[in-house]
Amino acid sequence: MSMRLKWMRFPMSAPAPWVLCAMLAGSSFLKGEAREADGEGQEPLLLEDIRIHDPWILPDPESRTYHFYTSSRDPRTRRSGVKSYRSKDLKHWTGPISVFEIPDGIWAEPTHGAWAPEVHRHKDRYYLFVTLHNQDAVLSEPPDVWRKNHLRGTVVAVADSPEGPFELLKPDGPHPPRDFMTLDGTLHIDAGGEPWMVYCHEWIQKIDGTVEAIRLKDDLSDTKGPPIHLFKGSDAPWLNSSLRPDTRQLSYVTDGCELYRTRDGSLVMLWSSYRNGSYVETQARSTSGKLEGPWEQLDPLVDGDSGHGMIFDTFDGGKMLVVHRPFGKPTTRAKLYDIEDAGDRFRIVRPRGDLDGDGRAAIVGGR
Domain for residue 365, yes or no? Predict the structure, then answer.
């Protein structure tokens, strides 16, 4: 069941479920799309009003504005891209505005989706990492493999503003190796100041999904050197302890890798997988303090079909975790938590239902 959800999170052969629901909603959706060019002239939205998958929040300290990024799809052309919302208080949001559209003439098919957008400020510019696809570019298929593999990988685009427009740096292929089926690439700067892309290697291709990394050029326009292996999904002891004898195939998902340096210098990675068919947000720690690891798996942070999270700094000096919940459904929304840097790991402090309108997810670890 969990594997089907992962595979189907954005169907590519038909309009996505949120598009169908919005079409049924009628004129209100069309009015919202008409506003997407500038996001102005509208009443503020609440988080519970916004369907968001793979959430990413970028605080801009200069304007004291939070930018919230998520995938978009034009209901008329079905062209995919990235849109953003803005907020001063994390409760009231304006937008969306379009910050990136998949251009024609590149390796990816513009109508096949854009997953897990995230924006990083690096050397006074803004870099968008987003996973694109070409379902028609088949890498391998049965009987050579258990399931068809197609071209999928994370690209990098650049802009001078967090609101874009972002321009693709490498139009001829994703940053990870082209024959790897990868997703959810993120930026990591190592202790020597060298940039890396850390990404997930799909369970669809690997069966036991992995997290890997590859060095980037200084301007992030391409990679240099071979990728390195960090860990595999089945390394998580809590995942193994949840298994029961049955007839289902063992496939281990790795999603949403994000790296942070904690107050005591530890290197901690957030990532997501499934336990008992439900999505979870978990964490791992490098025992060497270096990207190369080895990586020790820690207890999950949040369950309740929640995950693909990231941590951001708030303007009042705190830290917050944002995840989406539930996975892959029209009711998917962003959920916020106050989070503590505990030195060698992160700990959930409390859910922020006052901001997201909910806050009911179970907290299972790191308290």
Answer: no
* Burial class (CB within 10 angstroms; exposed 0-12, middle 13-18, buried 19+) of 26: exposed
Could you tell me if residue 102 is inside a domain? Answer: yes
Residue 68 in any domain: the answer is: yes
Q: Which residues contact 37 (CB under 8 A, 6 or more apart)?
A: 97, 98
Q: Which of 175, 110, 177, 169 is nearest to 139 (CA)?
A: 177
Residue 364 lies in a domain: no
CATH code at position 177: 2.115.10.20
Taking the CA atoms of residue 131, residue 35, residue 32 and residue 7 in that order, the dihedral angle to the nearest 10 degrees is: 0
Distance CA 202, CA 210 (A): 7
Distance from C-alpha of 142 to C-alpha of 82, rounded to nearest angstrom: 33
Q: What is the DSSP letter of 254?
A: -
Count of the separate structural domains present in the chain: 1
Walk along the chain (367 residues) and give the pLDDT tens digit of each residue: 334 333 333 333 333 433 334 333 333 333 333 334 445 567 899 999 999 999 999 999 999 999 999 999 999 999 999 999 999 999 999 999 999 999 999 999 999 999 999 999 999 999 999 999 999 999 999 999 999 999 999 999 999 999 999 999 999 999 999 999 999 999 999 999 999 999 999 999 999 999 999 999 999 999 999 999 999 999 999 887 777 888 877 779 999 999 999 999 999 999 999 998 889 999 999 999 999 999 999 999 999 999 999 999 999 999 999 999 988 778 899 999 999 999 999 999 999 999 999 856 556 654 4
Residue 24 to residues 9, 15, 18, 21: CA-CA distances in angstroms? 20, 13, 10, 5
What residue numbers bound the domain in which 346 lies? 2-356
